[in-house]
Design goal:
The complex is a heterodimer of chains A (189) and B (336). Helices cover 2% and strands 51% of the residues of chain A. Chain A is built from one helix and 15 strands; from the N terminus they run ββββββββαβββββββ. The termini of chain A are far apart. Chain B is of the alpha+beta class and 336 residues long. Chain B is 37% helix and 22% strand. Chain B contains nine helices and 14 strands. In chain B, strands 1, 5, 6, 9, 10, 11, 12, 13 and 14 form a nine-stranded mixed β-sheet that branches. Chain B has a three-stranded antiparallel β-sheet with strand order 2-4-3, with no helix packed on it. Chain B has a two-stranded antiparallel sheet with strand order 7-8. The radius of gyration of chain B is 20 Å and the shape is globular. The chains are: A mainly beta (189), B alpha+beta (336).
Chain lengths: 189, 336
């Protein structure tokens, strides 16, 4: 892979800093009055998590991280691992609960997710932004208390518990924003 | 979106900017400054290494450029005898686009013969505090839950004091690149890079966040000689030059509002700096612009003066609480 230019620095770009792969979260052009331009770059460490901020000079070359994003289908859970399958060659890969992180809360069988690999090792999983999930248990909301933003707990088919408005009932399907981990709306199935 | 729908959202902004321009012109009128419509199309756009000019096709006649600042022509007028003059107009810098940058922007530049840089800096404070009174109702700005107090006099810090306090470094201003790298070795630095690159890495990483956390603007003065541009050396300490910048905390991060100089009026020293800039441009593979001989010749007649350039779009961002420069333009770049 050829080196990136600072003009390539955009959200989602995977780059190598001091030998460690990072994904760019934010990139902003800054230029001091009488100095060269820099790109103020906020990045997430793909190996160990955690964010850093770096000012990268605009003429600097940036090494691409040798990572690969592949669409994979989630199959089943095996012990603590989540097993996903490459759609093209049917190869199965276990993903540890550390790499899966909070994504398990919205993960359904047969869901297609993006898995980021580095040196053949899965590093990061990205779910679709919106996921529809069924509520398996939720007590009815107290009558008369339907105003405002009052939420009640609801258990989803994945086992995760989320806050939903009082008018949402057990057995209904709801849309979830996986980036916020929050209820969006009821879905008619 | 129809033009009517687009305009409705921008009307308050357009009115505020018109009001701001009126305030600026009144401000200078009251202080005896003459408004100059400086030329925009010029034979030499200025040689500063980090400013990239638009070149304009001149149909076979000699090359022309769009100004990156009206500085050369304004100084020729000062050399000719104008003692108080200002220009409010567009300047152009290629490749600059960010939250605080647009390739075309409005610059306010003013010159005063006989003023020290310090007196000029006070006029910057009066101008910004006055503009806030007109547009925001008081000499203060609200940024989130913070109130930034603009009342005069503003705190002032030398570059050296800021490096000593926040970076733990005794900066001289005339050390070579190797010495500077050793002094800054406690900080993360680019592997290669010029004096200016090392300096600004620490300035951006370490010092700017401290200035952004204050509830006051800071006037940063006494800049190291390698960052001197068109400023003159301090008589009592030639390792630094008479240059100042105003930094103001804002919704959109720390805003660098202006850049002012005790002007260099020595044509020999100015030619030496221009030629050094041209050599650096050649080394970096940047465009070679012609020397402006008329400007250099005029410097010999220029009296001691101070001059400052202020970004009017950034001033509007500050007063209107905009996050991006697009938010204060009649047409954001994407809308053209």
């Amino acid at each position: 892979m050829s080196a990136y230019d600072t003009s390539d620095l955009k959200k989602g770009l995977k780059i190598l800093i001091d030998g460690v792969p990072y994904v760019v979260l934010e990139a902003q052009f800054v230029k001091p009055g009488k100095g060269a331009a820099f790109i103020r770059t906020k990045m997430k460490n793909l190996l160990y998590g955690g964010n850093i901020e770096r000012n990268i000079r605009s003429n600097e070359k940036i090494e691409p991280a040798d990572v690969e994003d592949r669409p994979m289908t989630y199959l089943f859970k095996e012990g603590d691992d989540f097993v996903v399958m490459d759609q093209t060659n049917y190869e199965q890969t276990p993903i540890s609960k550390e790499v899966m992180g909070d994504n398990w809360k919205w993960l359904k069988d047969n869901m297609v997710v993006q898995v980021t690999f580095y040196n053949g090792r899965p590093l990061d999983v990205q779910l679709p932004n919106f996921v529809d999930l069924k509520i398996t248990q939720s007590d009815p909301g107290a009558r008369g208390d339907t105003s405002g933003n009052v939420l009640k707990p609801a258990t989803l088919e994945t086992g995760a518990v989320i806050g939903v408005p009082l008018f949402v009932n057990e057995g209904e399907t709801i849309k979830i924003d996986t980036r916020e981990g929050a209820y969006v709306e009821r879905v008619k199935v | 979106m129809s033009e009517r729908a687009r305009l409705v959202g921008r009307l308050p902004l357009l009115r505020a900017r018109a009001r701001l321009n009126r305030f600026l012109r009144d401000f200078f009128e009251q202080r005896g400054f003459l408004e100059i419509e400086a030329p925009i199309l010029v034979p030499s756009p200025g040689l500063e290494v980090h400013l990239d000019a638009f070149s304009v096709d001149n149909g076979g006649a000699s090359q022309r450029y769009l100004i990156t600042s009206p500085e050369y022509q304004m100084k020729r007028l000062v050399a000719g005898g104008l003692e108080r003059a200002y220009s409010l107009g567009k300047v152009f810098r290629r490749g600059e686009r960010g939250h605080h940058h647009n390739p075309e922007f409005t610059m306010l530049e003013w010159y005063a013969v006989g003023w020290s840089w310090d007196e000029l800096a006070t006029s910057v404070e009066s101008l910004i505090a006055g503009a806030a009174e007109v547009l925001c109702g008081r000499a203060a700005l609200t940024s989130g839950t913070r109130v930034i107090d603009l009342q005069l006099p503003w705190p002032r810090s030398s570059v050296r004091a800021l490096f000593a306090e926040h970076a733990g470094v005794a900066l001289d201003g005339d050390e070579d690149v190797r010495t500077l790298r050793e002094k800054l070795s406690a900080h993360r630095l680019p592997a290669d890079g010029t004096w200016s690159d090392l300096f600004f890495t620490v300035f951006l990483d370490v010092i700017e966040p401290k200035l952004q956390a204050l509830d006051r603007p800071t006037l940063v003065h006494d800049w190291p000689r390698p960052l001197s541009a068109l400023a003159r050396a301090r008589a009592d300490d030639p390792r630094v030059v008479e240059r100042f910048e105003a930094y103001i905390p804002s919704e959109s991060g720390l805003l660098e509002l202006c850049n002012g100089f005790g002007e260099l009026v020595d044509p020999v020293e100015q030619r030496r700096r221009c030629e050094a800039d041209l050599r650096t441009r050649a080394e970096l593979g940047l465009a070679a612009y012609p020397l402006d001989e008329k400007f250099l010749a005029a410097l010999g007649d220029m009296p001691d003066a101070s001059g400052v350039a202020l970004g009017v779009d950034r001033l509007a961002m500050l007063l209107l609480g905009a996050h991006d420069i697009s938010g204060v333009l009649p047409f954001a770049v994407e809308e053209l």
